[in-house]
Write the structure tokens for this entry.
Amino acid sequence: MDARERLRLYLEQRREMGESEFVLDSLPVDEVLRLLGDKQPAAPRSAANWRETLASIGAEAPPPRAAAPRSPVKEPNTSASGEPSPRAPVTPPAAPPAAPPVTPPATPPAAPGAGLVVGSPMGELLPGPLAGLASLDEVARHVAACRGCELYKTARNHVPGEGHPHAGFVCVGEAPGQTEDELGRPFVGRAGELLTKILEAIQFKREDVFICNVLKHRPPGNRNPAPDEIKACSPYLLRQLELLQPRVILALGTFASQTLLQTTQPIGKLRGLVHRYHGVPLIVTYHPAALLRNPAWKRPTWEDVQLARRIFDSAAQG
Ligand code: URA
């Protein structure tokens, strides 16, 4: 089967799955462009050059975004759900992630504006009963034994989070869904599969980063987390972040973003800005579950994750 036919079949499959956009796939952009008759040599193109790429295939690229907050875009509540997938333990690699940096675009994107600032810098160890926990595994053991709220009674498993113990890039979602509860791992349902693809689009393997949630136990029926649950669970996330000392945090969806940033501002106002969470740059983007329902958010998500990747890269150089 030639490449054009493969592409046609692939796109048909995607359409059958209810998807109408083709933005965050791992199919190499250059290969697709070649299929579409592009004569340019592949080398100068990069994942970061998405405006150029869209223009070259005749698709409209939105104008560069100003740093100022934009009009709000409403995201529906992003409760976690998904289909079962086999549990596979993640073995942390010996060395910190060494993902290749995203090549800077020819025209640098507009500098993002500064956002909200929450908490004192990570360096000043936060007081509290968890301050003595010396590793992510220890935090996970405390999560397993946690009785700080009622969720442990209905959850099948605790879901502390997983990934590289020295990850510089941390993704924070809302709470485990059904599949996550069954498997004791974060983001392993359909939304998780999409998150893995999104990470791959910015040259991260899932195991290079750390993935966790604000809540470490599943709220029954995927209902929204309650304030007392957030209060009880937040110290675990904070200790995880203290131990990881990430270069950037990616907050996934309205709930994680508003909880971490202690705001009720809609996600459309929080996106595109560099917030600070205990000194760590924090970027807000749509929840992968919301993207599955609304493919129109894929492009803004692509911009958000590229911004997060650029901050990660520049922190590495600084
Ligand atoms: N949604 C989340 O917010 N977290 C998960 O772990 C899975 C889905």
